[in-house]
């Protein structure tokens, strides 16, 4: 029983991170119909920038309270990532908005690898230790079940950010402009919406969320390196599709479900397949789910039918 | 071939016959030129030919049929592992080369159809990401199928694969003529791979102007319209996947025999991306583009390694950017800049199904007429 | 202008006259000199260089002629395909013997090319057992292989650590899986039980799911076959999940990097192993450390002494056979038997070093301490 609950917690924590990244994918896809492959790598940049800021602050003001330091590092990471998101959209994607459909996708793959390579040049190939500013000493809410304060913070922060984003999209003027642009660019611009600004804003918000996800990811595992964003990025995309791409609530649901599937999958697949498959297949669950969803329920759990849109 | 000829700078348009002979001459003389810089360059040329085959096959899927496949390396893996299973001490089976090659191609084609069926309805970016997943799934299975029954030997890979043997003629042995004249095995492989690439080019060229090639072009440009004029898009897509995969499988089998060792790490996502970049760089939907893209992007990192590392050492005293970083930088920048500045690639594809003279006539006339309107 | 040309021409004649009395013999060195393992690759190359320079300084005469050894160093980037290209380059350069490569993944495909060219290869660092089991007559290594290390680890878990229940994880690389399998075998043979066999990848960061599963089986020792980049976070996550079992890993995790990445997860219940003796316990260790430091102004990382002895084995064999030709000196290389830096250097029938030692280290006061 403890094992079951523990696996649930493991899945919930990693799922929350996936959900947060998936929001960025789903927003951009909803508006542009573009899979921004480089989104996962923005997460990596966020984590490494936060790391650099913390190391700098530790050198400059050793007595600073850890929470303040974390807040500053997070803010710097968010700003840098927002700039990065803006630049990507402006330099690479905007010019390809009316190009043949393969062009933006190939560019996005290129941007993803370019970000990884640049990070490799700046920060090297080694894994870096990410400072532990929040306590990682485990608590035992139920005997035999362990949770660290960082993990609790991840779930809470993710939930808050999602609610915030939902409010932004559904209750504000900007949100209405975003929804209108997603519905139809041309009509929206006829109605007086500055669609270019809205698209840029979408990238910027997505990048900020990725930065937060990156800092949470790095604090949870205590490490950061140039390739850390790619796999979570792919999985978060799967989560977005699973939930129904273009649908914010779906992205969250998809993220959490994927986290749980991975966690329970790795934990129980050996029993389920009578020892034929084992935890070495952990990384293929996401891809199998992706394939199955797109084939059998292209609308995802909560979304509209989109598999023909390209 | 005509596209390649036309791609030769300056000469191609003025004197196509001379350009044709120039290409043939260069292709034959290349290993002798490379030999002057060391045998390793002949080996690099051999690998470049394999990449060419991969690029040609992927071009069929991406360029001709418009299906973006990010897991193409999986078929290469299928071919390589088929060869490894059937010609190594691993299962202690040693079938002749001519038996394994069609089998490798057939298994790869089968894998292509297996991938093709479920993704028939998907287009564009969804297709890309599902094929990416497919590539990873294949790699993960190769990595893990050593338990409970040892099939692939897991991460250890399969070693001691038999070399290519053409009717009792072992390509891995140097040929000795007289006392001091030998033809090195790397040359034999080069010409054998060259023959394979030439055969592929001829085949694809015929295919391109056939009914199938035209159907693909129609499907790529507008799937709905293609359906409306009676093209069976389902069969055409499956055929594209299967044929593309076949080239990957053949290249993989040759790779396994040439290298003598296969392990899952040779079939990573990065390799899929590298082959895609070659196609994109050269020009999608264009034979010459795939050939030139593969040639340039397979050789450039090796050149960089020879030039950039010593250069950095003399300039800065130590190596700032190591060759692997340079390769990644090169590939990613090639992808982005090509798409932004020259989306049709180094050698843009021309219309795929009519003869050159029709085409040039057509191209010369249309814009004027449009402008006149 | 003309005068300089004449002067240069004269100088080159003078040089070739001097060289006539001295035969230059090239030896190849191959290791990753760029990328994230470059520090280990450099270490290997420096060890080889030191051996060659010392031999040259001492003066070696083979076949009646004075011999000057020259190192041809190549960068294999720890990549199998680059490894074969580099091997071809060394063969091109006409080397008479090769000291390298670092990684088993590059050594194995490269060994085929050396074998075809008839050039002996002595690896000071590749530990995969398969390297010497390919029926190539000219492949040797001066470091204990993974069978020797895995056996040592397995026996240590059941013996000194007194564990009956052992959980084993590997990272699905050739190295990690090989070591984990050998360790599992040794655990079973020495009366222990493998209660869980789990897997991750060499790029993973989250091990919570498999560790939770392992926790349910109550192991006394958790063994990980893989590298420090995963071992570090794994130890942290064990602590966060309340797993109190001892942690044991191979040479991939036996680094200062691992201690850094594990952060507060490290405790005295973490152990690791390294093939060979620690430098200070090697017969020629202390002296070697000083010579190395003096020449390169750097500390020995890991492989330098093994590379030094690998080069010495080739040079000694050449002297005994009185020939630099591989076909002539190979029989002598097989019969090698001399006191090296790492201990006595002699090879078994496969080409593995005899009596390859394995040392276990324990985490104490912020560092790995040999037991």
TrEMBL record, chain A:
Localization of this protein: Cell membrane
Keywords: Amino-acid transport, Cell inner membrane, Cell membrane, Membrane, Transmembrane, Transmembrane helix, Transport
Topology relative to the membrane: Multi-pass membrane protein
Pfam (any one): BPD_transp_2
GO molecular function term, any single one: L-leucine transmembrane transporter activity
Highest taxon, organism lineage: Bacteria
Protein name stated in the entry: Inner-membrane translocator
From TrEMBL, chain B:
Bilayer disposition of the protein: Multi-pass membrane protein
Pfam families according to UniProt: BPD_transp_2
InterPro entries, per the entry: ABC_transp_permease (IPR001851), LivM-like (IPR043428)
UniProt keywords, alphabetically: ATP-binding, Cell membrane, Membrane, Nucleotide-binding, Transmembrane, Transmembrane helix
Domain of life: Bacteria
Keyword Membrane: yes
GO molecular function, a single term: branched-chain amino acid transmembrane transporter activity
Transmembrane segments: 18-37, 49-75, 95-119, 126-145, 186-204, 238-261, 273-304
Chief location of this protein within or outside the cell: membrane
GO CC annotation, single: plasma membrane
Subcellular location(s) per record: Cell membrane
Protein name: ABC transporter ATP-binding protein
From TrEMBL, chain C:
Occurrences of domain Leucine-binding protein (ranges): 25-366
Signal peptide feature range: 1-20
Record keyword Signal present: yes
Keywords attached to this entry: Receptor, Signal
Gene3D superfamilies (alphabetical): 3.40.50.2300
Protein's UniProt keywords contain Manganese: no
UniProt record similarity statement: Belongs to the leucine-binding protein family.
Protein name: Extracellular ligand-binding receptor
Organism: Thauera aminoaromatica S2
């Amino acid at each position: 029983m403890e094992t079951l609950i523990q696996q649930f917690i493991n899945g919930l924590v990693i799922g929350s991170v996936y959900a947060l990244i998936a929001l960025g994918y789903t927003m951009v896809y909803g508006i542009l119909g573009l899979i921004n492959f480089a989104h996962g790598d923005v997460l990596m940049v966020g984590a490494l920038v936060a790391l650099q800021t913390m190391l700098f602050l530790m050198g400059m003001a050793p007595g600073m309270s850890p929470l303040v330091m974390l807040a500053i590092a997070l803010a710097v990471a968010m700003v840098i990532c927002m700039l990065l998101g803006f630049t990507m959209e402006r330099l690479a994607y905007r010019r390809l908005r009316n190009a043949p459909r393969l062009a933006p996708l190939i560019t996005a793959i290129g941007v993803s690898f370019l970000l990884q390579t640049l990070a490799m040049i700046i920060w090297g190939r080694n894994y870096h230790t990410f400072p532990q500013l929040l306590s990682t000493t485990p608590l035992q809410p139920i005997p035999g079940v362990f949770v660290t304060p960082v993990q609790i913070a991840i779930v809470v922060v993710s939930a808050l950010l999602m609610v915030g984003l939902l409010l932004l999209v559904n209750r504000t003027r900007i949100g209405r402009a975003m929804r209108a642009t997603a519905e139809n660019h041309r009509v929206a611009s006829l109605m007086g919406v500055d669609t270019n600004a809205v698209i840029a804003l979408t990238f910027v918000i997505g990048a900020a969320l990725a930065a937060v996800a990156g800092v949470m990811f790095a604090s949870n595992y205590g490490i950061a390196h140039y390739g850390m964003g790619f796999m979570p990025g792919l999985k978060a995309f799967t989560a977005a599709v699973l939930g129904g791409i273009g649908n914010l609530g779906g992205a969250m649901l998809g993220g959490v479900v994927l986290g749980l599937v991975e966690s329970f999958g790795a934990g129980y697949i050996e029993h389920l397949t009578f020892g034929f498959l084992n935890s070495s297949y952990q990384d293929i669950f996401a891809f199998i789910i992706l394939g199955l969803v797109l084939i059998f329920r292209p609308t995802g759990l909560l979304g509209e039918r989109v598999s023909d849109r390209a | 071939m005509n596209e390649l000829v036309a791609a030769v700078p300056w000469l191609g348009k003025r004197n196509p016959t001379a350009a044709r002979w120039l290409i043939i001459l260069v292709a034959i003389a290349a290993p002798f030129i490379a030999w002057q810089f060391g045998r390793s360059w002949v080996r690099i040329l051999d690998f470049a030919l394999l990449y060419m085959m991969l690029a040609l096959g992927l071009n069929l899927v991406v360029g001709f049929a418009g299906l973006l496949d990010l897991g193409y390396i999986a078929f290469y893996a299928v071919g390589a592992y088929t060869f490894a299973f059937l010609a190594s001490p691993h299962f202690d089976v040693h079938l002749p080369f001519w038996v394994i090659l069609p089998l490798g191609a057939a298994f790869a084609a089968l894998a292509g159809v297996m991938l093709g069926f479920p993704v028939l309805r998907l287009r564009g970016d969804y297709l890309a990401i599902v094929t990416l997943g497919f590539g990873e799934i294949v790699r993960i299975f190769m990595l893990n199928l050593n338990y409970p029954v040892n099939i692939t030997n897991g991460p250890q890979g399969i070693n001691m694969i038999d070399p290519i043997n053409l009717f009792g003629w072992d390509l891995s042995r140097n040929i000795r003529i007289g006392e001091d004249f030998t033809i090195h095995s790397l040359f034999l492989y080069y010409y054998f791979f060259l023959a394979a690439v030439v055969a592929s080019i001829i085949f694809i060229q015929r295919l391109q102007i056939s009914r199938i090639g035209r159907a693909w072009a129609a499907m790529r440009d507008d799937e709905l319209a293609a359906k409306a004029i009676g093209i069976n898009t389902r069969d055409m897509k499956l055929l594209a996947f299967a044929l593309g995969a076949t080239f990957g499988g053949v290249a993989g089998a040759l790779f396994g025999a040439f290298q003598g060792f296969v392990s899952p790490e040779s079939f990573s996502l990065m390799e899929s991306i590298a082959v895609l970049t070659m196609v994109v760089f050269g020009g999608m939907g264009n034979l010459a583009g795939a050939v030139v893209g593969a040639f340039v992007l397979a050789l450039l990192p090796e050149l960089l390694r020879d030039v950039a590392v010593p250069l950095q050492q003399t300039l800065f005293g130590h190596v700032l950017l190591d060759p692997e970083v340079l390769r990644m930088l090169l590939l990613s920048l090639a992808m982005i800049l090509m798409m932004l500045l020259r989306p049709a690639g180094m050698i843009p594809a021309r219309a795929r199904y009519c003869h050159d003279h029709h085409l040039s006539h057509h191209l010369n006339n249309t814009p004027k007429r449009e402008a006149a309107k | 202008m003309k005068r300089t040309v004449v002067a240069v021409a004269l100088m080159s004649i003078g040089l070739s006259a001097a060289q006539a009395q001295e035969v230059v013999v090239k030896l190849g060195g191959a290791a990753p000199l760029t990328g994230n393992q470059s520090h280990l690759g450099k270490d290997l190359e420096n060890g080889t260089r030191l051996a060659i320079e010392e031999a040259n300084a001492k003066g070696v005469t083979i076949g009646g002629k004075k011999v000057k050894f020259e190192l041809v160093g190549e960068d294999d980037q720890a990549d199998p395909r680059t490894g074969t290209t580099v091997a071809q380059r060394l063969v091109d350069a006409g080397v008479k013997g090769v000291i390298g490569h670092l990684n088993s993944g590059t050594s194995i495909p490269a060994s085929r090319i050396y074998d075809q060219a008839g050039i002996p290869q002595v690896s000071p660092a590749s530990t995969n057992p398969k390297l010497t089991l390919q029926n190539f007559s000219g492949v040797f290594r001066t470091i204990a292989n993974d069978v020797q290390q895995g056996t040592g680890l397995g026996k240590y878990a059941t013996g000194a650590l007194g564990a009956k229940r052992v959980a084993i994880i590997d990272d699905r690389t050739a190295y990690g899986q090989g070591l984990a399998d050998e360790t599992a075998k040794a655990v079973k043979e020495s009366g222990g039980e493998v209660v869980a066999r789990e897997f991750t990848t060499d790029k993973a960061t989250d091990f919570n799911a498999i560790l939770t599963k392992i926790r349910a089986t109550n192991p006394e020792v958790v063994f990980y076959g893989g590298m420090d980049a995963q071992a570090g976070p794994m130890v942290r996550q064990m602590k966060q999940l309340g797993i109190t079992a001892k942690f044991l890993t191979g040479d991939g995790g036996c680094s200062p990097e691992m201690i850094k990445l594990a952060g507060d997860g490290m405790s005295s219940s973490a152990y690791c192993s390294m093939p060979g003796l620690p430098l200070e316990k090697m017969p020629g260790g202390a002296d070697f450390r000083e010579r190395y430091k003096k020449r390169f102004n750097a500390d020995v990382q890991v492989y330098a002494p093994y590379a030094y002895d690998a080069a010495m084995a080739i040079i000694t064999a050449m002297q005994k056979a009185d020939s630099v030709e591989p076909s002539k000196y190979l029989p002598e290389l097989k019969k090698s038997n001399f006191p090296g830096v790492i201990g006595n250097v002699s090879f078994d029938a496969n080409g593995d070093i005899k009596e390859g030692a394995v040392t276990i280290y324990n985490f104490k006061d912020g560092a790995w301490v040999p037991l």
